[in-house]
């Protein structure tokens, strides 16, 4: 996410508002410290974005997932055939 200092934001406010309205949020900082995030009013809040389960039914995790490659790993660490 792009960061603009207060002076830069004041001098380019119109352009930055268009940027945020177009879906590209940005941060305004003072003395290098982020103060506010500017984003479009209709942009979803991070808490509204559901990520859990978004690939449900599209992938399969094998039963032996936690043991996959264990033989090769042991060979690399211990040198056993």
From TrEMBL:
<protein>
    <recommendedName>
        <fullName>Antitoxin</fullName>
    </recommendedName>
</protein>
<dbReference type="InterPro" id="IPR006442">
    <property type="entry name" value="Antitoxin_Phd/YefM"/>
</dbReference>
<comment type="function">
    <text>Antitoxin component of a type II toxin-antitoxin (TA) system.</text>
</comment>
<dbReference type="InterPro" id="IPR036165">
    <property type="entry name" value="YefM-like_sf"/>
</dbReference>
<dbReference type="Pfam" id="PF02604">
    <property type="entry name" value="PhdYeFM_antitox"/>
</dbReference>
<comment type="similarity">
    <text>Belongs to the phD/YefM antitoxin family.</text>
</comment>
